[in-house]
Design a protein that fits this description.
It is built from nine helices and twelve strands.
């Protein structure tokens, strides 16, 4: 029985995983391969669903695969097995949350009956080049974040140094490479901005040895707080909200109606950078959704 190839896409919050995922989808579809996607979200809503309307999509909400919803992943894989057979799926792409540990995801695929149906071809680790040195610094980051970054890089069979366009100095890249090679000395490194260039290597650099899981893993437990906007909100108000909680918000994203032109927009925020994109169609629920993600966030503080 032929196994369905699986490509894992992991990396810390805001590293550019979804951008890489979209590049991979375009690549496989261009090569006439039918794709199924597993998306894992920390919150109870996926504000990026509009990006995958034409795909076979499986969602894992309210947690990270590596802890509270590992059992849900098994249920999803059971459903995926049926979909693969019925719809003749050629490739599975799985995007973990920014705090997912790839080792435990891999271990789930190694269990029966999934091991007979799926084969992990790559564990792609997307690295935020602009912030990785802070994330592994004892002065700028928590022990949990440092350990998670280490384990994500260690379990990567393909390493993507993303956001190179945001590096402050050219010699910073050498420092980053040194850190990455300290954690993983064997995996090929791809240099990228906006996830470009990954797809050219994703099938050509298949690991010579099987990708294995971990016996022990560190977890970082962050909170995802959802804010529903039943009325339009301005871009300036979004910026003020993020600025007010910038010390605790690691990542934010959402879809909102802009008060200034009454059009719908999707936004992404990571490492102080806000990306604002107009939506072609308004969301079906017709109310704005803002997701704030952070290690020490509290609802009381956000809504005070």
């Amino acid at each position: 029985m032929l196994k369905t190839p699986v490509y894992l896409i992991n990396g810390f919050l805001g590293s550019g995983k979804t951008t890489v995922l979209l590049e991979c989808i375009r690549y496989f579809k261009k090569n006439n391969k039918k794709v199924a996607i597993i998306l894992n979200e920390l919150g109870n809503v996926n504000v990026e669903k509009h990006l995958f309307q034409e795909e076979s999509l499986f969602e894992l909400l309210n947690g990270c695969i590596c802890c509270s919803i590992k059992d849900d992943l098994k249920i999803t894989l059971s459903e995926l097995k049926e979909t693969v057979e019925k719809q003749k799926i050629d490739v599975v792409l799985l995007e973990g949350t920014g705090v997912a540990n790839p080792g435990e995801i891999i271990e789930t695929f190694e269990e029966q009956p999934f091991a007979d149906s799926f084969s992990i071809m790559q564990s792609v680790c997307v690295i935020d080049s602009a912030n990785i040195l802070d994330y592994i610094s004892i002065f700028a980051s928590s022990k949990e974040v440092r350990e998670l970054q280490k384990e994500q890089i260690e379990k990567g069979s393909l390493l993507v140094l993303n956001k190179l366009d945001q590096l402050p100095k050219k010699d910073t890249l050498q420092k980053i490479e040194k850190v990455v090679r300290k954690y993983n000395g064997a995996a090929p490194i791809i240099y990228s901005s906006y996830g470009k260039g990954v797809v050219e290597h994703i099938e050509s650099h298949i690991p010579a040895t099987p990708i294995e899981g971990l016996g022990h893993a560190h977890h970082i437990h962050v909170k995802a707080i959802k804010i529903e906007q039943k009325v339009a909100i301005s871009k300036k108000e979004i910026i003020n909200l993020l600025h007010k909680h910038q010390e605790k918000v690691i990542r934010a994203k959402g879809s909102i109606q802009n008060r200034e032109d009454l059009e719908w927009y999707h936004f992404q925020y990571a490492a102080g950078q806000l990306v604002w994109e107009k939506l072609a169609n308004k969301p079906q629920e017709e109310k704005g959704q803002i997701i704030l993600i952070g290690e020490k966030l509290s609802r009381e503080e956000i809504f005070s």
